[in-house]
Amino acid sequence: MSERAMIPAAKPLIGSAEQEAVLQVMASGMIAQGPEVAAFETEFAQLLVGGRECVAVNSGTSGLHLGLIAAGIGAGDEVIVPSFTFAATANSVALTGATPVFADISADTFTLDPASVGEAVTERTAAIMPVHLYGHPADIDGLQEVADRAGLQVFEDAAQAHGASWAGRPVGSFGTFGMFSLYPTKNMTSGEGGMVSCADAEIARGMRLLRNQGMERQYANEIVGLNNRMTDIHAAIGRVQLGRILAWTATRQANAAYLDEHLEGVVTPPVREGATHVYHQYTIRVAGASAAERDRVMQALREEHQVGCGVYYPIPNHELVSLARFAPAHELPETARAAAEVISLPVHPSLTREDLARVVEAVNTVMGAGS
Known about the structure:
Layout: H1 16-28, H2 35-48, E1 53-57, H3 60-70, E2 78-82, H4 88-95, E3 99-103, H5 114-120, E4 125-128, H6 140-150, E5 153-157, E6 165-166, E7 169-170, E8 177-181, E9 194-198, H7 201-211, H8 232-242, H9 245-262, E10 275-276, E11 282-285, H10 291-305, H11 333-341, E12 342-345, H12 353-368
Parallel strand pairs: 2-3, 2-4, 4-5, 5-8
Antiparallel strand pairs: 1-9, 6-7, 6-10, 8-9, 11-12
């Protein structure tokens, strides 16, 4: 076995600038939601979502949850979501009292298939919530057509898609709201947190009330709310990261291009015409593999070649114990195939050219050996 160090599948980039920003906030004595949060919201809006008003919260899941409530989603409603995603997407719907309805994905982008969504619409459907998975935008045009026919809202789960775009327009600027996660392994982080872009002032105000116990002015509670505020400490980290996200994205895209050019024996991630992919994950397919066969490939990459990798996601949401009660009566064949075939390889900005060459060598060797 090689003694080389493991290449990590993901690597948060936190440096001295973030540390200094946190120390300045702590020295100021204003640690809870304050001027840093307000500045972060404004700067995020201007850089990443075409100036849409943004509201910062304490996590991406909180962003989805509060966005749904602010948009009027609740008991009796159905919201169509992918099953091939992290459970937070469907969890947020269920937490409002509404029902998550699972639809299938497109084979190329791993995002909601408009045809499958159309088949899932019922008289109770209130909205569609696509996920811009791995950093590739969902088929907004196709999904919007379905929404327009049925009179539905569209919400964007852009947790993994900071800076992605469709037809020259940034994700997070299409739906009633768009949520970006700021978890440590995302393309940028605030340590923990979420940012929600809002289509209009009413949604934004609803978000601000809901995150702060239902009040904009202290003790003047207007609605029943939660404590989902972001702290100034987290916002200070996020502001530093925001200044680097465009350069980091360019590096991710260059790393992905290298992998595209040199990998053999696997299906590399296609990019649809008109889409800008920001490669939160670089996700390949081991075409035709069973989950067990795919797992053996991963084991070889890790143990024989010290290349970190992961599966996002091995269990579709509708098969999870927590969400199985919402499972559709019909099959989701592309979801099942993706869950068995996908492997996400390192693509993060801290990779060196030597690291990339090692990733390529490892994958090509393992696939050439028929693992």
